[in-house]
Task: inverse folding
């Protein structure tokens, strides 16, 4: 008889993901020591499955298990070992990238790659095989992972290594192949905690592709911000940000706590089209004054949004959607234009639109999102059916171009769209632990 | 904008390894772990004490990876071993070469309603939070008097500022230890050593699981740890953590009994 789930998990109505759209009751447990994990997993069954979750920075429902159990892994946040000579770091899955940096940076090491938020756990970084501004040179986070500790319901705790099929299923495996207990990865050397950065504005999206061809290859970090409200020959105007690690500046880590907070949900009017427009124009102006070279610390450069805690609440109580696609290289330029046109035509201003060219590294995970091509990430405030319609239009464009969407950002795509983007999902399915599931997984495999 | 980031970043430079020797009693509490991590980042030599040796090993590895110069552990029951505090301390002094800071984190919240009917529970709440903590503090003070320096920090609670129906056994023990440390600080004044009690408000730890933690008064261990670390550095008989509890408790202490008795606080 498995232990009773109701005794180990507490009911909660409050669990939301970063987009704050999906609202559902859960049963929650937060182990504080690794020895508390085994009974939690033993209490899960295929009828009452569970899911391990991290800092809930995924936007949709891939980190939720509506009406089911979740194991909050953030209490398992101990480092296990760090070799300051070789840069090999091993830590429990609940350790945040932010905490890793506190240890890595002073001794001249850095994360091999990092998403745009440092409030992400190692477990979450592995389960979504996250990518950063240096994808074209470093590949995904999974590419640096040397070993993983995994706990499944149907076997003893195991240590997985590169080459092991379960290792590659777990990287990008959306938390479904088992509970990741610890992660070991290879850090990279940095000469300082600062970057030599350059911002260049471009007049439209075609210029972005030109600029990237000319300049992209000589920088480790590249990404561009796009003004989604401009149309016509200004369609896709924006600012390209390029950077390499600097030799100068010393090895100071960031300050751990965000300085500003959005303490409650902003009222609905806070982010209407006019305010998005004002924001985008102001941001553009600001970027222009900074155009040229700068020497930022990694914190504002890599994590611009982390300085405001709970910035996601700016979108009000209905929450918001993030939409992230990748389009293969040959079609990328034309398809990106099509997508931006569809967005401009809809008038559903995107607050933040980011474009980035992925490199050609082979995916490490069976279900990894990144592939060679161009990725576009968009935020849409939740305006109900009109927002859903726009996103369905975009789905059609992406699918027709042989692209796919990022599960970490998704809470809505249809099973058809997912399966078209990830035909390998059936091969992945055999690795899914029968007692694990998520809202996302039930939806896209139905 | 960039210059501002650079200057504030330079203020955040981690202090160079200072080799400070620190004993942490109740090292498995979430607040103790967060505080020990600050010391580890400074390259301190740590000695961790708590009951569960396996769990101590996990925290020791964590602190080593975070930069502690050395981490030793001692698995003992701090409540029942308090009478032998001096012997334990002299052993630990040999292990890490001395004691510069000692921090006492352990506590037992207990069950107020059980304490009203079960004398065992009542005496356990009082013995763990007051008697044993006082014995450890006195033994540490004895060591500090010999060396004329050293910092002692004892984690107390705002629950000790006014007796309330919901937790007066725990509150009385914590109020007692705060008073004890106030007196101990006075007695240490002629030496270079100091003692400090930190009265914490609501902190989100496993000890408080089961309470509704949604209000704005809740702090995380990572938020209160820097002030504990700073108090060890600076001394002063009392600190409230976070600071606003000082004003909340000022109000709570001044509520007249006839009003207080109508509340469920
Ligand atoms: C501001 C911001 C910027 C971002 N920028 C990027 C970016 O540039 N690139 C990018 O790739 N992503 C980006 N993201 C998304 C984020 O990196 C991913 O969603 C990441 O997976 C979140 O990690 P988490 O710890 O919050 O995990 P959660 O969101 O809580 O969970 C994510 C997944 O990991 C699984 N999981 C978590 N812990 C474990 C465990 N211990 N064992 C097994 N499974 C586990 C969960 O089941 C779930 O499937 C960004 C997010 C934000 C908020």
Result:
């Amino acid at each position: 008889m498995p232990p009773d789930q109701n005794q180990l998990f507490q009911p909660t109505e409050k669990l939301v993901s970063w987009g704050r759209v999906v609202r559902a009751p859960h049963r929650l447990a937060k182990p504080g020591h690794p020895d508390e994990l085994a009974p939690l997993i033993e209490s899960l069954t295929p009828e009452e499955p569970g899911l391990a979750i991290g800092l809930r920075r995924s936007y949709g429902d891939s980190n939720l298990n509506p009406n089911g159990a979740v194991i909050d892994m953030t209490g398992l946040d101990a480092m296990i070992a760090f070799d300051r000579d070789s840069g090999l770091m091993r830590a429990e899955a609940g350790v945040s990238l932010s905490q890793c940096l506190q240890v890595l940076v002073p001794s001249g090491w850095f994360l091999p790659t990092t998403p745009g938020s440092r409030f992400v756990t190692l477990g979450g970084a592995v389960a979504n095989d996250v990518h950063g501004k240096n994808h074209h040179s470093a590949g995904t986070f999974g590419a640096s992972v040397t070993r993983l500790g995994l706990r499944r319901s149907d076997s003893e705790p195991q240590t997985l290594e590169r080459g092991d099929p379960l290792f590659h299923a777990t990287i990008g495996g959306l938390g479904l192949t088992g509970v990741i207990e610890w992660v070991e990865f290879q850090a990279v050397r940095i000469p300082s905690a600062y970057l030599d950065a350059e911002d260049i504005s471009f007049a439209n999206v075609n210029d972005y592709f030109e600029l990237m061809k000319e300049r992209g290859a000589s920088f480790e970090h590249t990404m561009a911000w796009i003004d989604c409200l401009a149309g016509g020959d200004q369609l896709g105007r924006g600012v390209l940000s390029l950077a390499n690690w600097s030799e100068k500046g010393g090895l100071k880590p960031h300050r751990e706590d965000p300085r500003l907070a959005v303490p409650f949900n902003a009222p609905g009017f806070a982010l209407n089209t006019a305010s998005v427009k004002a924001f985008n124009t102001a941001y553009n102006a600001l970027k222009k004054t900074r155009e040229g070279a700068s020497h930022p610390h990694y914190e504002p450069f890599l994590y611009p949004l982390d300085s405001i805690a709970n910035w996601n609440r700016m979108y009000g109580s209905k929450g918001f959607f993030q939409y992230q696609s990748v389009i293969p290289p040959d079609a990328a330029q034309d398809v990106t234009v099509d997508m931006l046109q569809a967005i401009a035509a809809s008038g559903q201003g995107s607050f933040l639109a980011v474009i980035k060219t992925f490199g050609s590294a082979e995916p490490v995970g069976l279900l990894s999102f990144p592939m060679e091509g161009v990725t576009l990430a968009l935020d849409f405030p939740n305006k109900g059916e009109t927002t859903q319609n726009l996103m369905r239009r975009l789905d059609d464009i992406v699918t027709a171009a042989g692209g796919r969407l990022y599960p970490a950002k998704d809470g809505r795509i249809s099973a058809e769209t997912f399966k078209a983007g990830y035909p390998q999902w059936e091969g992945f399915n055999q690795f899914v632990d029968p007692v694990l599931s998520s809202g996302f997984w039930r939806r896209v495999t139905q | 904008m960039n210059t501002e980031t650079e200057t504030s970043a330079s203020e955040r430079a981690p202090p160079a390894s200072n080799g400070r020797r620190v004993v942490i009693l109740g090292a498995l509490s979430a607040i103790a772990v967060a505080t020990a991590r600050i010391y580890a980042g400074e390259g301190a030599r740590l000695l961790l004490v708590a009951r569960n040796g396996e769990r101590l090993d996990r925290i020791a590895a964590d602190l080593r990876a975070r930069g502690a110069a050395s981490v030793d552990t001692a698995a003992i029951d701090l409540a029942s071993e308090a009478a032998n505090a001096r012997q334990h301390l002299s052993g630990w002094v040999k292990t890490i070469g001395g004691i510069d800071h000692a921090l006492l984190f352990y506590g037992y919240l207990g069950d107020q309603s059980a304490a009203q009917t079960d004398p065992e529970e009542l005496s356990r709440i009082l013995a763990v939070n007051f008697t044993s903590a006082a014995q450890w503090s006195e033994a540490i003070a004895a060591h500090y008097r010999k060396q004329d320096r050293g910092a002692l920090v004892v984690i107390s609670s705002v629950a000790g500022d006014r007796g309330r129906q919901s937790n007066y056994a725990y509150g009385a023990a914590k109020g007692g230890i705060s008073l004890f440390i106030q007196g101990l600080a006075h007695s240490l004044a002629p030496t270079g050593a100091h003692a400090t009690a930190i009265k914490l408000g609501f902190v989100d730890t496993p000890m408080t699981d089961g309470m509704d933690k949604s209000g704005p008064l809740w702090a995380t261990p990572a938020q209160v740890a820097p002030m504990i670390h700073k108090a060890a550095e600076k001394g002063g008989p009392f600190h409230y953590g976070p600071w606003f509890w000082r004003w909340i408790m000022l109000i709570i202490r001044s509520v007249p009994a006839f009003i207080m008795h109508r509340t469920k606080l």
About this structure: Chain A touches chain B at residues 14, 30, 32-35, 75, 78-82, 89, 91, 102-103, 106, 193-194, 249-250, 252-257, 263, 290, 294-297, 299-300 (CB under 8 Å).
